[in-house]
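Q: what sequence does this backbone want?
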């Protein structure tokens, strides 16, 4: 069986909490709107899940296509939906102004192909919104095991089988992993600290009591704990052909 299908990537971790999904969709939109005019953009959303993100973006963008390996949608209006079978994207080169890979890449065995395919279908100077759990966060968000990301892959598999009675099917990343995977094809702009420092603007998903505390926390303190933050959020801008080294 194809490893992409075997991992059950989007369908195993779909989140159907409407309020949470809409809040996260608004965060994605706020980040993108600060860097590009979504009203003029053709958008590709990878990993449809419940469909709330594609639906919200379809309200303000030129068009939205969303893909998944199965149909688990709650919201089906406003965008085109396509089922895919692996990391390859069924679109022509230079098809989209914006691609969104929101907490998807960590479920993919072939992450390099995932990013190469996104690079292919993006127009020059197009944007990729990439968010993923941080490999070095204190507690793994999928299995709720502390420091799981620090362990060798074979040991992770053993622990998940032994204590969770599951197959280990996630491949979390750190910043260095992302930089290695993009291999100079994108300009990287970090948004992680910016989101944490502006929790109201970006509707950060934390307890309400923490938001004013984050506003008051000096950036130097946030940078100290930056390595352990739960998620990584970056914007990747596709370089023009003449900007890339040959």
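A:
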């Amino acid at each position: 069986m194809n490893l992409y299908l075997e991992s059950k990537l989007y369908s195993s971790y779909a989140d159907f909490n409407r309020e949470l999904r809409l809040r996260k969709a608004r965060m994605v939109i706020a980040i993108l709107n600060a860097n590009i005019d979504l009203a003029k953009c053709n958008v590709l959303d990878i990993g449809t899940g419940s469909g709330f993100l594609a639906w919200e973006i379809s309200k303000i963008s030129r068009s939205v296509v969303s893909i998944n390996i199965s149909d688990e949608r709650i919201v089906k209006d406003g965008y085109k939906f396509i089922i895919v079978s692996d990391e390859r994207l069924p679109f022509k080169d230079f098809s989209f102004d914006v691609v969104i890979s929101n907490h998807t890449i960590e479920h993919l065995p072939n992450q390099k192909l995932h990013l190469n395919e996104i690079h292919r279908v993006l127009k020059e100077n197009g944007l990729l919104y990439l968010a993923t759990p941080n490999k070095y966060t204190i507690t793994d968000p999928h299995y709720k095991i502390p420091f799981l990301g620090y362990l060798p892959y074979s040991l992770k598999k053993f622990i998940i089988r032994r204590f969770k009675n599951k197959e280990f099917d996630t491949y979390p990343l750190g910043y260095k992993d992302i930089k290695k995977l993009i291999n100079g094809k994108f300009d990287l702009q970090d948004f992680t600290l910016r989101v944490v420092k502006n929790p109201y603007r970006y509707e950060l998903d934390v307890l309400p009591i923490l938001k004013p505390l984050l506003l008051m926390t000096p950036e130097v303190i946030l940078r100290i704990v930056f390595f352990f933050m739960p998620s990584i959020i970056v914007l990747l801008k596709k370089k023009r052909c003449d900007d890339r080294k040959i």
